[in-house]
């Protein structure tokens, strides 16, 4: 995500940057990986040589929940979700790959490229790496004002990506520009199959999650806007020529199933998901 541009010096190691559109590292709140700081120290007289400090010990027994960087803690949530019977509760039908339907969708994307892409280009390029910051702004929150909600959104986003990648592997649908190269997307085509749309899944599951932790009156007021943002960002991927409309629809439907199972699935006694959901709700109480 662009919020981590302070670490752009590390971009040489970003071999998979082409996949950043669905990278789930939407946690752009300042070095979520937990390795953002560095300090200079004297070679001849390092800090540890200061009198009496090398013998000091802090009496702690655990790393501490507060010290978990969300970049890493999200994988605990993914592992917890993966240990459930999610494949028995989440399904996705195959896309319609008949020649006539594919041609219809391609022609629709061509019209979008001609009629809408010039005006939409700025927004769709901005949303290519991530859309979470749009949702945070719409909800009137920041990582430091609602830290538990933010952590929950990152966890849910990572779970959604895991499920999306599963079904992308199952159906292996070619990208529109593989079939019609003249679409020439203005953004890098992600390095994974087209169906379902990750942006659509992630956007809709984010909207659903935000509404679930807010008080009902605030959720009711924001739900139309959050849903519209999810639909808009998904459609921008179609305008860009990297997704079919049916990819976006499948992502929307998949998001609802993912959200429902996150809410309903059995949780272990020590559940990072349950604890984070409870903490997120408390922030909006």
β content, as a range? under 5%
Overall 3D shape: globular
Rounded average pLDDT: 90
Domains (count)? 1
Name given to the CATH homologous superfamily: Phosphatidic acid phosphatase type 2/haloperoxidase
Low-confidence parts: 1-30
Fill in the CATH topology: Vanadium-containing Chloroperoxidase, domain 1
User: In CATH's first tier, which class applies?
Assistant: Mainly Alpha
Please describe the biggest sheet, giving its number of strands, its sense, and whether it closes into a barrel. none
Number of helices: 10
Number of strands: 0
Oligomer state equals single chain
Ends: how far apart? 30 Å
- Structural class comes to mainly alpha
Task: Explain what this protein looks like in three dimensions.
It is a single chain. This protein is mainly alpha-helical. The protein has a single domain (66-284), classed as Phosphatidic acid phosphatase type 2/haloperoxidase (Vanadium-containing Chloroperoxidase, domain 1, Up-down Bundle), CATH 1.20.144.10. It is 53% helix and 0% strand. It contains ten helices and no strands. It has helices at residues 70-82, 99-115, 117-126, 132-139, 147-171, 176-179, 198-213, 216-240, 245-264, 272-284. It starts with 69 loop residues before the first helix and ends with a helix. The model is unreliable at 1-30 (pLDDT under 50).
Give the SSE layout.
Elements: H1 70-82, H2 99-115, H3 117-126, H4 132-139, H5 147-171, H6 176-179, H7 198-213, H8 216-240, H9 245-264, H10 272-284
């Amino acid at each position: 995500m662009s919020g981590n541009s302070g670490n752009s010096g590390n971009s040489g190691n970003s071999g998979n940057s082409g996949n950043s559109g669905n990278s789930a590292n939407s946690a752009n709140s300042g070095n979520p990986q937990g390795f953002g700081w560095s300090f200079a120290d004297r070679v001849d007289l390092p800090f540890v040589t200061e009198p009496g400090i090398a013998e000091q010990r802090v009496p702690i027994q655990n790393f501490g929940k507060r010290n978990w960087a969300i970049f890493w803690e999200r994988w605990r949530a993914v592992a917890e979700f993966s240990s459930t019977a999610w494949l028995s509760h989440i399904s996705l039908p195959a896309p319609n790959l008949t020649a006539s339907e594919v041609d219809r969708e391609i022609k629709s994307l061509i019209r979008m490229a001609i009629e809408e892409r010039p005006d939409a280009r700025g927004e769709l390029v901005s949303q290519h790496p991530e859309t979470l910051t749009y949702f945070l702004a719409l909800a009137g929150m920041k990582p430091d004002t609602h830290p538990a909600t933010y952590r929950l959104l990152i966890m849910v986003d990572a779970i959604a990506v895991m499920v999306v990648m599963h079904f992308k592997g199952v159906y292996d649908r070619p990208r529109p520009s593989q079939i019609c190269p003249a679409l020439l997307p203005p953004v890098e085509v992600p390095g994974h199959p087209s169906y379902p749309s990750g942006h659509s899944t992630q956007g809709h599951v984010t909207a659903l999650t935000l509404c679930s932790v807010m008080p009902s009156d605030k959720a009711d007021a924001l739900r139309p806007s959050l849903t519209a943002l999810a639909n808009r960002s998904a459609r921008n991927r179609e305008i860009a020529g990297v997704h079919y409309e049916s990819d976006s629809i499948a992502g929307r439907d998949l998001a609802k199933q993912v959200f429902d199972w996150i809410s309903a699935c059995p949780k272990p006694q020590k559940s990072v998901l349950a604890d984070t959901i409870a903490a997120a709700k408390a922030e909006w109480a």
